[in-house]
C-alpha cells in the first residue's frame, strides 16, 4: 500500500533529460518507485495530460519574520516552491540582544521593506542566540520546508554593539567571536552565512547596513568560521564598485572556507554590459577551482508603484504627501478632483534628498502599466514615456491615469535592473551561463514594492510557453535549473529530483492553462500590515513530503513542512 500514487503523468525529472510518461509512488514522504506501477494507494492523483516535476527550490527568500507568525510561506508556496532558503542579504533577527531588537527591525524595514508595526507585533522574540532562534522555529509546522542562514548584520551588532552598527572596523577579538558564532549557528542547523555590501541596502532611517564596509580580515575570518563547522554555503550582495577588491574578498572567502559562495548579479541600466565582465571574472575563478556562482533571474528586477504601495511617481510631490495618509477611497476623490489634479501635475517634486525618486523621474521609459496578465518582457513602445509621447501628454499625466484605474488599484512596473536594453536577452544569456544559478525572488520581503516570489511560475509561462521576442528555454532545462541545480547549490541533495529515494516534493502542473495573475494588495500581516501577493492558475497539486498542500491553487491545510537543519545528504548521483 502506497501513501500516494501519481498516475499517467508526463514526468520532467529534474535531471535535464527529456520528459517521459510514467507513474510515481510515494511512501513515508519518499519516492519509492517511478515507472509503470501497479498497486493500491491511500490517495491517487490522475496526472493524464499534465506535467509532473520536482518541487521548486528557491534559494533567495526573506521569510525570517514570517516563519515566526505564519504557517504558510506565501507567496512562494503558491508558486510551486516546496523548499525556501531565508536569511539572505545579511539581514535577519538572530542573534539579537534584547536592547537591539529595534535596531534589527529598522534594518529589515529599510532593506526589505517590511513595515515596522508588522515586525514589532509579529515577532515573538523568544530567542537571543541563533541556535535558540532555530529551536523556536523547529517547534512549528509549515506548508513547505525552509532553511536558514546566519545573517552578518545581526551577527556584527550582537558582537560589536554600537561599533558594529556604525561600521567601525572589527578587532581581531571581534572577528574571532563572529567566526565562533557562525560555526555554532551552522552546527546547530544554519545552512550558511550571508552578508550585504551594497549601498542600496539601508536602515529605515537611511543609514547604510552595518556590514557595508566590513574589511577583508573580517570577511575571511567569518569564512573560516564556516570552514570550522565542516559545511555551509555563503551568499553575498555587493555593488562591484569597479575595482578588484570585491572579487579579492569573495575569492578569499571561498579559499579559506572551502565552501561555495553565490553573489547577486543583474544588468545595470547605466552600464548595460557590466554583467558580462562580472561573469567572466567568475568563470576565471571557477577555472582556478574557486566555487563561485552568480545568482541571476529571468525577469526585470522592478518596483511596483501604486496608491496603496510604498512609492509612486507622486511620492515626492507636496500635494500628494498631504493626502498619502488617507484611505484609498479618499485619495481617489482628491486625485479625480480637477482642481487638485491640476495643482498636483503642475508642482515640482521635492527630490533633493531622495535619490531613488530623482532617478524615477528621469526614467519614464522604464515604466510600464501592469495588466491583468502581466507582461514581464514589454516592448519599449509600451512604456509610459512612449505612450505619453504618442498621446501628446506629459508622462506624469499618464502615470496618474494608470494609478487611478480599477478603483485606484492600477499599478506601474518600474524596471530598474535587468532590462536596460528593453529585452530579456541579457537575462537569458546570464541564466544559461555555466556559473550561474537561479535566485533573487525575495519571497517574504519588499511587501509594498516588489512581488517576485512568482519567478518560478514566470519561468514556465514566459520562458517555456509564451515568449515571442526571442528564443524560449526548454522545459527540462527550466525544471533542472529551479529544482536540482538550486537544491544542490545549497547542499540539499535529498530533493530536486524525481527518482526513488528522493524526498517526495512534487508539482503536478497544467502548463497549457497556466496563468500568472496581476499582483494585488492584501492586508493580512500582523498589525493588519500590507503586502503584495500574486496568484497563479495551473498548479493542479503541490506536494511536500508526500502530502498535498495545494490542490488546484487552494490550500488543503496540510502542514508537512519544517525547518531543515543543515545540508541534507541524498541518494548518490
Account of the protein in words:
By secondary structure, this protein is an alpha/beta fold. It is 32% helix and 21% strand. Strands 1, 2, 3, 4, 5, 18, 23, 24 and 25 form a nine-stranded mixed beta sheet that branches. Strands 9-10-11-12-13-17 form a six-stranded parallel beta sheet. The mean pLDDT is 96.
The level-1 CATH class of the largest domain: Alpha Beta
The number of distinct structural domains comes to 2
Mind telling me which CATH architecture of the largest domain this is? Alpha-Beta Barrel
Intertermini distance: 28 Å
Percentage of residues in strands: 15-25%
**Structural class of the secondary elements?**
alpha/beta
Number of strands: 26
Shape: globular
How are the secondary structure elements laid out?
Elements: E1 2-11, E2 20-27, E3 30-35, E4 41-46, E5 51-54, E6 56-58, H1 66-69, E7 81-85, H2 101-112, H3 116-122, H4 130-138, E8 145-147, E9 149-151, H5 152-160, H6 162-165, H7 172-187, E10 192-197, H8 216-229, E11 233-238, H9 245-257, E12 261-264, H10 274-287, E13 292-296, E14 301-305, H11 318-321, H12 328-335, H13 338-346, H14 355-360, E15 367-369, H15 384-391, H16 395-403, H17 405-408, E16 412-417, H18 425-432, E17 436-438, H19 455-466, H20 475-482, H21 484-489, E18 506-509, E19 515-516, E20 520-525, E21 529-533, E22 536-537, E23 539-544, E24 547-551, E25 554-555, E26 563-564
Parallel strand pairs: 1-4, 1-5, 6-7, 7-8, 8-26, 9-10, 10-11, 11-12, 12-13, 13-17
Antiparallel strand pairs: 1-2, 2-3, 5-18, 14-16, 15-16, 18-23, 19-22, 20-21, 23-24, 24-25
Amino acid at each position: 500500500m502506497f501513501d500516494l500514487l501519481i498516475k499517467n503523468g508526463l514526468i520532467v525529472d529534474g535531471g535535464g533529460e527529456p520528459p517521459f510518461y510514467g507513474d510515481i509512488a510515494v511512501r513515508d514522504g519518499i519516492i519509492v518507485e517511478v515507472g509503470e506501477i501497479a498497486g493500491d494507494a491511500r490517495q491517487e492523483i490522475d496526472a493524464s495530460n499534465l506535467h509532473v516535476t520536482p518541487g521548486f527550490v528557491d534559494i533567495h527568500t526573506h521569510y525570517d519574520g514570517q516563519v515566526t507568525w505564519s504557517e504558510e510561506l506565501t507567496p512562494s508556496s503558491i508558486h510551486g516552491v516546496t523548499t525556501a532558503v531565508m536569511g539572505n542579504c545579511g539581514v535577519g533577527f538572530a542573534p539579537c540582544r534584547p536592547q537591539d531588537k529595534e535596531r534589527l527591525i529598522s534594518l529589515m524595514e529599510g532593506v526589505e521593506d517590511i513595515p515596522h508595526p508588522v515586525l514589532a507585533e509579529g515577532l515573538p522574540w523568544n530567542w537571543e542566540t541563533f541556535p535558540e532562534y532555530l529551536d523556536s522555529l523547529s517547534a512549528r509546522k509549515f506548508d513547505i520546508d525552509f532553511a536558514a542562514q546566519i545573517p552578518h548584520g545581526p551577527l556584527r551588532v550582537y558582537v560589536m554593539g554600537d561599533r558594529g552598527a556604525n561600521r567601525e572596523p572589527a578587532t581581531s577579538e571581534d572577528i574571532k567571536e563572529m567566526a565562533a558564532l557562525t560555526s555554532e549557528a551552522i552546527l546547530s542547523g544554519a545552512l550558511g552565512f550571508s552578508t550585504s555590501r551594497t549601498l542600496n541596502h539601508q536602515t529605515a532611517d537611511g543609514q547604510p547596513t552595518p556590514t557595508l564596509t566590513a574589511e577583508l580580515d573580517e570577511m575571511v575570518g567569518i569564512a573560516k568560521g564556516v570552514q570550522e563547522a565542516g559545511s555551509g554555503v555563503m551568499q553575498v550582495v555587493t555593488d562591484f564598485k569597479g575595482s578588484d577588491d570585491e572579487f579579492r574578498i569573495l575569492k578569499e572567502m571561498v579559499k579559506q572556507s572551502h565552501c561555495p559562495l553565490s553573489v547577486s548579479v543583474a544588468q545595470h541600466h547605466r552600464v548595460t554590459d557590466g554583467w558580462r565582465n562580472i561573469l567572466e571574472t567568475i568563470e576565471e575563478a571557477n577555472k582556478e577551482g574557486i566555487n563561485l556562482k552568480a545568482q541571476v533571474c529571468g525577469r526585470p528586477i522592478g518596483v511596483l508603484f501604486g496608491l496603496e504601495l510604498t512609492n509612486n511617481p507622486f511620492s515626492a510631490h507636496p500635494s500628494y504627501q498631504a493626502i498619502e495618509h488617507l484611505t484609498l477611497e479618499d485619495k481617489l476623490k482628491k486625485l479625480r478632483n480637477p482642481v487638485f489634479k491640476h495643482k498636483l501635475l503642475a508642482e515640482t517634486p521635492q527630490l533633493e534628498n531622495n535619490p531613488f525618486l530623482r532617478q524615477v523621474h528621469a526614467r519614464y521609459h522604464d515604466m510600464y502599466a501592469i495588466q491583468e496578465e502581466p507582461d514581464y518582457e514589454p516592448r519599449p513602445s509600451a512604456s509610459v514615456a512612449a505612450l505619453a509621447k504618442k498621446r501628446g501628454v506629459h508622462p506624469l499625466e499618464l502615470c496618474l491615469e494608470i494609478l487611478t484605474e480599477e478603483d485606484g488599484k492600477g499599478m506601474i512596473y518600474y524596471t530598474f535592473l535587468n532590462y536596460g536594453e528593453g529585452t530579456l536577452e541579457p537575462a537569458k544569456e546570464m541564466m544559461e551561463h555555466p556559473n550561474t544559478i537561479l535566485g533573487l525572488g525575495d519571497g517574504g520581503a519588499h511587501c509594498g514594492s516588489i512581488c517576485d516570489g512568482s519567478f518560478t511560475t514566470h519561468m514556465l509561462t514566459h520562458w517555456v510557453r509564451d515568449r515571442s521576442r526571442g528564443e524560449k528555454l526548454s522545459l527540462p532545462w527550466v525544471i533542472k535549473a529551479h529544482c536540482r541545480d538550486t537544491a544542490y547549490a545549497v547542499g540539499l541533495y535529498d530533493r530536486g529530483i524525481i527518482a526513488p529515494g528522493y524526498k517526495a516534493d512534487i508539482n503536478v502542473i497544467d502548463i497549457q492553462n497556466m496563468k500568472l495573475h496581476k499582483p494585488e494588495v492584501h492586508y493580512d500581516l500582523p498589525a493588519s500590515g500590507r503586502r503584495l501577493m500574486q496568484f497563479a492558475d495551473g498548479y493542479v497539486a503541490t506536494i511536500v513530503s508526500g502530502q498535498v498542500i495545494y490542490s488546484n491553487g487552494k490550500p488543503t491545510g496540510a502542514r508537512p513542512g519544517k525547518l531543515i537543519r543543515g545540508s541534507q545528504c541524498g541518494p548518490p548521483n
